[in-house]
Every structure is written in C-alpha cells, then in structure tokens.
Amino acid sequence: MEVTLRQWVDEAERVVVFTGAGMSTESGIPDFRSPGGVWSRMQPIMFQDFLASEEMRVEAWRRKFAVDVEIGGAQPNSGHKAIAHLVAQGKVTHVITQNIDNLHQQSGIEADKIIELHGNGTYAKCLDCGFRHELEQIKAAFVAGDEKSAPGCQSCGGIVKSATISFGQAMPEDEMRRAEAATLSCDLFIAIGSSLQVMPAAGFPVLARHNGARLVIINREPTDIDKAADLVLNAEIGAVLSGLVGLNS
Ligand code: NAD
Ligand code: ZN
C-alpha cells in the first residue's frame, strides 16, 4: 500500500473521489479503450440523430439491450467497496462519476453522495416530461413490436431514452453545479480509472488542485493531467484501494 496516499487520506477532512470507466473493469465492464469493448465496436449514436430518426432510436434500443445482456449482472468490485467504506467513515463527501453503471449505488453509497455526470444506464426517462421508465417494460414493449418501433412515453407519448448523456447531449446542469461545489470544498481529490481526456470531466481534478486541494491520480497508464497531480499511482485500482482501507481485494 502506498504510504503517501494513506497519510494524505488520514490528514484530509473532505475527500472527493472522481471515477471513470477504469473503476468498473474489475467488475467485468470494459472501458472505452480496451480492444473489442462494447463501446468501441460501434460508432456512438449522436443525440441529434437519436432525436431526428425513429430508425436511430430503434438501433439505440437494440444496442442498449445487447450490451445489458453482456454486462447487466455486473457487481461492485473491491475498489467500489473500499470507496463505500471511506464514505461510511465520513472521509469521502462525494463520489463524482463518469460511469453510468450504478455500481457506486450498489456498493451501498447513498444516492445523494453520488454525482453522475453522464447519467445512469439502469433506467430510462422521457425526454419531454421526465417520467421515469423501467427498462424491463421498455424491453417488453420493444420485443412485442418485433423491435421495429421505439417505445414512447406512457405518460405523454414523448421520446424515451436511456437516462444517460449521449454524445451531442448537454451536460446535466444540476450535476455539474454539484460536482463543482464538491470539488471546491475538498482538500483531497482522488481521480480513479479515467483517462481524463474528456471535458468537462477532466476539468474537476485541475480545479481542485488550483483551489489548493491535493490531487492524486490512480490509473493503470498515464493520463493527460499527470503533470498537475501531487501523486500519480500507475497501478490496479482494486489492489490500491483495498490496501488503502485495509480490506482484502
Ligand atoms: P477511459 O476508458 O477513457 O479510461 C479508463 C482508464 O482506466 C484507462 O486509462 C485505463 O488504462 C484505466 N484502467 C482500466 N482498468 C483499470 C484498472 N483495473 N486499474 C487501473 N486503471 C485501469 O474512461 P473514461 O475516462 O471514464 O471515459 C470513458 C467514457 O465512457 C466515460 O465518460 C463513461 O461515461 C463512458 N463509459 C462508462 C462505462 C461504465 O459506466 N462502466 C464504461 C465504459 C465507458
Ligand atoms: Zn413523457
């Protein structure tokens, strides 16, 4: 276990954890970069195209349900559990995540301490009225229609989409505000499993550092903002975090 990280966590009063796709690879969910990963096989569907064409919406639902068959049963790994432990101790105030897999919630962290910058892929929402739809019902309607039409909103007839933020879709304002406030109030910011290439997400670690917090990056390979960090650990996430909190990985 990295002595400096443990000492800095001990010394810190308010820690913010920021996670990317690397957080969940040990749960069996591929990140963006792994060859053959679910996200890398196809061009993403842009938000504008999803809105503009029923054919694209049908394609989006087809892909979504195919991906869920592969990764739907994923469970929190030792890294998620270690973070939940630090939240329960009152050390970590917020987890800001780019992930959409719901695994931080499943690890036992209260929803109000998790800030999802890219939404959540375990349910769907109407883009017009905001009504929440469960995926099982959408899937049943989709299959019943021979996968030829995209299910509409039960409440208003509007367009229903997985509750994630697509390429081309605006970042969620409330989450961005909450992430900024959490970042500005921490004294230690730990960025975990993100290549930190995607803005605005990569902005939060830099903001924390400029605001006087210590910045630690834990990632298997170098990231674009390593130079700004006080400590970079090129290591496996589960091992580092379970070592940090004294849990077996
Ligand atoms: P990324 O794929 O660009 O970067 C992930 C980083 O994690 C890589 O640098 C990789 O080397 C590292 N990594 C992977 N497994 C690791 C491990 N076990 N230990 C240490 N390092 C490890 O991910 P990103 O920066 O989060 O950007 C991808 C975007 O795609 C995200 O914004 C997210 O919305 C979406 N996405 C989400 C999921 C998910 O919800 N689990 C999965 C894939 C992609
Ligand atoms: Zn609606």
Tell me the layout of helices and strands.
Layout: H1 3-11, E1 15-19, H2 47-52, H3 54-71, H4 78-88, E2 92-97, H5 103-106, E3 114-116, E4 119-126, E5 132-133, H6 135-144, E6 160-164, H7 173-184, E7 188-192, H8 203-210, E8 214-218, E9 231-233, H9 237-245
Parallel strand pairs: 1-2, 1-7, 2-3, 7-8, 8-9
Antiparallel strand pairs: 4-5, 4-6
This protein binds nicotinamide-adenine-dinucleotide and zinc ion.
Zinc ion (ZN) is lined by residues 126, 128-129, 131, 153, 155-156, 158.
Task: Outline the structure in words.
With 249 residues, the chain is of the alpha/beta class. The chain has 2 domains: 1-28 and 75-118 and 171-249, Rossmann fold, CATH 3.40.50; 30-73 and 120-164, 2-Layer Sandwich (SIR2/SIRT2 'Small Domain'). Helix content is 35%, strand content 17%. The chain has 9 helices and 9 strands. The protein has helices at 3-11, 47-52, 54-71, 78-88, 103-106, 135-144, 173-184, 203-210, 237-245, and strands spanning 15-19, 92-97, 114-116, 119-126, 132-133, 160-164, 188-192, 214-218, 231-233. Strands 3-2-1-7-8-9 form a 6-stranded parallel beta sheet, with helices on both faces. Strands 5-4-6 form a 3-stranded antiparallel beta sheet. A hairpin with a 5-residue loop joins strand 4 and strand 5 (132-133). Helix 4 (78-88) packs parallel to helix 9 (237-245) and helix 7 runs parallel beside helix 8. It is elongated, with a radius of gyration of 19 Å. The model has no long low-confidence stretch (mean pLDDT 94).
